[in-house]
Amino acid sequence: EAGVAQSPRYKIIEKRQSVAFWCNPISGHATLYWYQQILGQGPKLLIQFQNNGVVDDSQLPKDRFSAERLKGVDSTLKIQPAKLEDSAVYLCASSYDPANSPLHFGNGTRLTVT
Amino acid sequence: KQEVTQIPAALSVPEGENLVLNCSFTDSAIYNLQWFRQDPGKGLTSLLLIQSSQREQTSGRLNASLDKSSGRSTLYIAASQPGDSATYLCAVRPMDSNYQLIWGAGTKLIIKP
Questions:
Q1: What is the CA angle B106-B111-B113, rounded to 5?
Q2: pLDDT value at position A1?
Q3: Mutant choice from A103, A104, A112 vs B, greatest count of B C-beta within 10 A
């Protein structure tokens, strides 16, 4: 079974620039998550999709962050404009059953904002 | 509000020892609890998932237990190896959420050869 694919692996941008991350979940997984992880902390949920609908985006800074999951498969997360405090690892995860199945994570995108 | 705590933040033990990692949570109303492993520069790998009705789960040298009444879970690693060095995170899925996970900050484990 292929895992969760994410790209790019690394990205360095200047503040006020924009950036986009891409995620392809495991085939058949209806639930997709985007997390932000600061070094030394647990992941923080940004947005959760069930198929192509948003389940929870309460912690997504909507003035600068946006995410979509067209056709209920791939997803993109965008930041525009980026701030220094957005430097983090952005993790995508998917699961078959949001209540009972484990999460499967991609390797993440490490973003550095200078 | 559910909170998850992992103590200690870091642990170093000699190779071959058995060890226990701890996870505590404040609200026993959970669907399940998961243990994950994270290697430097990598995403998280799911190790074990314990449903609320279960007391423990085993996979190879790993054994995870769950005591909902006391709000505690442990991850037991038998015969530790240098390859077990990683950060271990636990997460609970509360019943009052959209199946979201509440995460601990993790325990960084170093196994010394």
A1: 165
A2: 65
A3: A103
